[in-house]
């Protein structure tokens, strides 16, 4: 996918954003400590590929899987 926005990395992009735990399936919510932050690694199409409890960890996870992470607000 070509994007008209300069400065975005080339290759497979992963969008990193904070996720509201209340939107996750109950079995996933049961594993998350109360008041914990949840960060998602998402594909270009918006599919959630992974969850983590740390923003920095989400960026590292994306890079470890040959994805170019960018912050999505």
What does this structure look like?
With 73 residues, the protein is of the alpha+beta class. It has one domain (13-71). The protein is built from 2 helices and 4 strands. The chain has a 4-stranded mixed β-sheet with strand order 3-2-1-4, with helices on one face. Strand 2 (38-42) and strand 3 form a beta hairpin. The protein is elongated, with a radius of gyration of 13 Å. The chain starts with 12 loop residues before the first strand and ends with a strand.
Low-confidence segments, given as residue ranges, are none
Separate helix tally = 2
Strand order of the largest sheet: 3-2-1-4
The best one-word shape is elongated
**First and last CA, distance:** 20 Å
H/E topology pattern: EHEEHE
Content of β-strand: 25-35%
Q: What is the overall pLDDT average?
A: 88
In a nutshell, what does this entry contain?
The chain has 73 residues and is of the alpha+beta class. The chain is built from 2 helices and 4 strands.
């Amino acid at each position: 996918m070509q994007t008209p926005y300069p400065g975005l990395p080339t290759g497979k992009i992963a969008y990193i954003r904070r996720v509201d735990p209340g939107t996750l399936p109950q079995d996933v919510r049961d594993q998350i400590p109360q008041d914990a932050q949840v960060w998602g690694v998402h594909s270009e199409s918006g599919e959630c590929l992974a969850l983590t409890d740390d923003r920095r960890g989400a960026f590292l996870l994306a890079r470890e899987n040959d994805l170019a992470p960018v912050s999505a607000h």
